[in-house]
Automatic annotation (TrEMBL):
It is an enzyme of class 3 (hydrolase). It comes from the Bacteria. It comes from Phenylobacterium montanum. Residues 2-156, 316-414 form the Type I restriction modification DNA specificity domain. CDD domains: RMtype1_S_EcoEI-TRD1-CR1_like. SUPFAM superfamilies: DNA methylase specificity domain. Keywords: DNA-binding, Endonuclease, Hydrolase, Nuclease, Restriction system. Belongs to the type-I restriction system S methylase family. This is Restriction endonuclease subunit S. One of its GO terms (molecular function) is endonuclease activity.
Amino acid sequence: MGDVAEINPRTDFTHLDADQPITFLPMAAVAEESGAIRLTETRTASDVSKGFTRFQTGDVLFAKITPCMENGKIAIVPAVPGGVAAGSTEFHVIRPDVLRPHFVFFYLVRRALREDARRNMSGSAGQLRVPTDYLRTLPIPVPPLEVQDQLVGRVEELFVEIDDGEAALADARAGVETYRKALLKSAVTGELTADWRRENPPTETGGDLLHRILTDRRATWSRDPQRRGKAYVEPKRPTIDQPPDLPEGWAWLSLAEIVSTQERSFQSGPFGSSLLHSEFQASGKLVIGIDNVRDGFFSLGSNHRISPEKFDQLIKYKARPRDIVITVMATIGRTCVIPDDIEDAIITKHLYRMSPSTNVVLPMFVNLCLRGHPVTLAEIFGNTQGQTRPGLNKEILEGIPIPVPPLLEQEMIIRRHQLSAQDADEGTAIIESQSAATAALRQSILSAAFRGELV
């Protein structure tokens, strides 16, 4: 390619005033495979005078580093003010000579070429890059300009048809997500089981339910021999003064009122030097952190582990089966239920775990409420503390309000939600399958184009 295009050419900025705004393109500004660029950031010419890649309108940017290159972060620099721009040092810059920029873009964004580029990367793991010489010696067809224009035009024409299909898929995807949110809200507000309640009227009022739960809680606490001689302290009530009305037989309780009375039922992970990132290892006992807590479900995530000896030191932070965990630092408010078959594991400082009283609430129902009830969500996200690193603490969490129906209705809510959520999952699977098919179709069109089958 070096014979028909300059690779990483010099772009002159010497004619610019130091304070002149320059379009800046970080790697995140370039979309994957589509060639789209978000022009949202500017810096002054003096800011980009050193340490950044410079380019101009019409240049082709090619991400050199893994995994950006494999993901197809390739694009043509659009018309920008002054005709010049700067950006990430992880871009190779290609300035076509006898080639149209769009012809070069379509040639480079082919998956087959990116796979070949991956095989020719150099560097250390996690820092692999495509060498400049790979692009300089890369063979590329050079048809007459009119043929290039015909090929580009035909590819774009076919891509427009695919764009229409992808737009429809995006609408369908958004529709499924809207349905998921509506389903979740209807579950935890009682709408999903309104018909069930008519056929199964509650045997006590919400006030009676609340009184019984708190009375049973005190009695359970007093029967614990380890509590003998200790004064009972009433758990914190919900922090909202005038909670909205609930369906008949439901009651507002706080997280503090629904957790078990056993020791360490409300527990954060170890802070400070108690657990250092440098102590993580490939084998041993599991450490549960933010990436293990997905949107409502548990995932093995990064699979961080510690030695059995370290686990024994931190045993009080052990995760119990059916505990509810919530992310309280960095990423706020993601929740899940710890699986019944969880191996020995501890939580990190980024999480709080709660062991619910299962004679009061089912863990999965609480998980649904923490994810979907408007009042509960407002209390979680309206009370985060801190500016640069917002977070939740025990005092905030204890007062989070949870709408609690009778146990039989909780079971029905969980069952109905799971069945309807399965329908949404099936819809999502179909959409993602079709989306993968359209991506494959784009690649097939590109392959056909450079085999000479389109023009």
